[in-house]
Amino acid sequence: MDQLPSKAALAAWIAEHPGAVAKRDIARAFGIKGGAARIELKRMLKDLESDGTVERRHRTYRDPESLPPVSVLLILPTDAQGDQFAKPVEWEGRGPAPRILFRARKADAPVGEGDRVLAKLTPVTGEDHAYEARLIRKIGVVAHKVIGIFRKETEGGRIVPIDKGSDKEWRVAADMTHGARDGELVEAEQVGHRARLGLPQARIIEVLGDPSAPRAVSLIAIHQHGIPDDFPDAVIEEADHMTPAGLGDREDLRHLPLVTIDPEDARDHDDAVWAHPDDDPKNPGGHVLWVAIADVAHYVTPGSALDREARRRGNSTYFPDRVVPMLPDRLSGDLCSLHEGVDRACLAVRMKIDANGTKLSHRFTRGLMRSAASLVYEEVQAAQDGRPSDRCETLMAEVIAPLYAAYEALKRARAARQPLELDLPERRIVLTDDGKVASVAFRDRHDAHKLIEEFMVLANVAAAEDLIRLRRPLLFRVHEEPSPEKLEALREVAEASGFTLARGQVLQTAHLNRLLAQAEGSDFGELLNISTLRSMPQAYYHPENFGHFGLALKAYAHFTSPIRRYADLMVHRALVTGHGWGKDGLSPQDIEMLEDTAQHISDAERRSMAAERDTTDRYLAAYLSDRVGAEFPGRISGVTRFGLFVKLDETGADGLIPIRTLGREYFHFDPGSQTLMGADTGLTLSIGQRVTVRLNEAVPVTGGLMLELLAVDDAALPRGPGTKGRRIARKPGAAKARSAKLERKVKRTRR
Known about the structure:
Strand order of the largest sheet: 29-28-27-33-34-35
Oligomer: single chain
C-alpha cells in the first residue's frame, strides 16, 4: 500500500487536470497496480467524493470548484486598466465563480460587454485571476446583415442590393466604408434605426471583393433564394433571456454515459447516444439503446417570437463557409447544444432490441442529461479499430464497444428490411482562410457514421409509433415510390447498361437493391446509383402517414434534429402533449395549421437544397476556372436534346457539352433510351459512357462548366479537314448493330 498517494495529493492532481478523468487515468498517473491497491484507491476516491472535495460524473472525477477546459463565458465590462474579464455562464461550485481574464488575439472577432463566447480556459497561478481564456467563437450575437454592391460617392457611398426586384439601398458614411472600392461586393450591418427621411445607415464589416469570387458565393445564394439570415431584434432578445432548464419534474439521466458523435466541424450537438447489453434473460444477446435529443421545445414555445421565426425558416441551411441557422446561436450553440460535462434538457427514448436488431419496446422521457464526451466520427472509428485516443480509451469498455455491438444487431435488422442502398459519395469542399477552394474531396463514411444513422432511424420510428399509439397529430416524413414513368426510364438506363430490373411486380426496395448490386464494381455502378436517385420522388412532410418507401418503413417521423428542423420540434411538442409533460406542447393553433406547416417546411427544405446545390456548383466552377483548357476523365450523366451532361471524376462537377460542338452531322435524340445517335456515323452517345473532355469555360457567377468532347470509351475522336462528322473507331458493323438495338428499344418504348 506504500505506493498509494495521500488524499491531498489525489485531490491536488484532479484539480490540476480539469478535464474529467477516470480512475484508470489516476491509477496510471500514480503508478498504482494490483487489485488491492486499486480497491484502496477506489475507497479513497469515495471518501473525497463524500466530503465534496471531488465530484464524480459517470465514473470520472473532477474538482467541483474548477471549470471545464472549454466553457461558455459572459464578457464583463473592461476595467480601469483596460483588461477584459469574463465569468462562466454556469457555475456549480460552492463559492463565488472564479475570475477569468479574457485575452483577445488579433485574428479574433471583436467582443464586448454582454457578449457570450465559447472559450478555451487555461488555469493560472500567482495572479488575481484563476483562468485565462482564448476565444473559440462568439455565440448569441446576431446583427442586422446587409449584402450588396458598394457604389462610391464623394462622401462615403451607397450599398445597392443584389436581389432582383429590390430597390432598397443603404447609406455608408465615409468612415464606415472599410476600404471598399466601387463595384465590390460587401457585407455590412445596419447602424441604428432608420430615420424618417433618407436612406438607412450601414457600416461595412467585410469587403468580399469581386461579386463573382468564391467567398461571395454562399451570400449570393442566400439572397437569391430568399433564405432568411437575419434574426429580428425580438427573437434575439427572447433568446438572450433564456436560462438553462433545471431538473424539476424531469427524469435525472445524468448518470448515463451518453456521448455525442459528430463531424469535426460540427456547429452544434443535438443528439447523444449510449447502449449496453440487455440483462433481461428473456432477451438473450439483446441490447438497450438510449437516444437523447436536445429539448428545444422547452425554449421555443408555441406562438413566441422564436417559434414564429423558426417556422418561417423551416430548417437550417448549410454552406461550405457558413451556416444559416434555424435558431439563434444562444440556443443552437449553447442552451440546446449537448456540450460535454454540462447539464442539458432533453427528450430521450430508451429502446430494447433483440439480437437481430428488432425493436421490442421503447419508452420516451423528458429528462436532464450530461454528456460524458463530445466525440468525433474519425476518433470513434479509430478507437473501434484498435487505435483509441486517450479520452476514447477510458470510454471503450462502457461506451464505444457496446455502441458497436448494438450497431451489429441493427445491421442485421437493416439487411432484413432492405432499405434502398444507394452509394453516392458526398463531396466536401475545403476552403482556405480567404474563402478560396483549397480542395474538393469525397467524404469518408465509416461505421461510426452508419452507427449514428441507424440509432437515429430507430428513434424516429419509435417517435412515429408512439404518437400513433397516443393518437396525437404529428408531421410524418413521407417518401412515396417512383412513378411508372420514372421507373420505366430507370429500367431503360439499366437495360442500356446491360442489367435488368424486373417488370410486372409490386416494386420493393429489394428489387432496386438487386439492380444496384448487379452494377456494383462495374463501370456503370455510379451511373445506376445516380439514375435510381433521380427516379425517386422527393421526401416531404405531411400530417397523414403514407409510409417511407426509401427506408422501407411503415411509419416514420423526424425527431432527432429539432435544432435544425422545425418538423422535429413539432414532433417533440406532440410527445410533450401526449405524455402530459408540460404546457409547452402542441397548441390548438399548431394543430389547426399542421397541413400548412407541412407544406411550408417542405418548400423551405427544397429552397435550402437548391441554394446549397447552386453554391456547390459555383464553388466548383471557381475551383476549376484556373484549369480552363485542361483535359478530364468523366462519365455521361445526362442526355438532352441540346447536348450531354458529363460528371467529372475528380470533383464530381457536372458540365455541359453543347450538341452543336459534336460535329457537323445531325444527332437524333431518343428520350426513351436517353441517347443521341449520329445520322451519318451511327455514333451513339448514352448515359454511363466513359468520356474524356476538355474544359472550355468555367463561370463562377453561374456555376456553369462548358466542355468539349475528346474521346468516348477510350477511343479518340479524329479531327481533320473534310471530316463530315466526328467518328469513333469501332469494330466493323458496330454502328449498324447499335443502330438496330436503338430501333428495337424505341419500338418497345412506343408500345
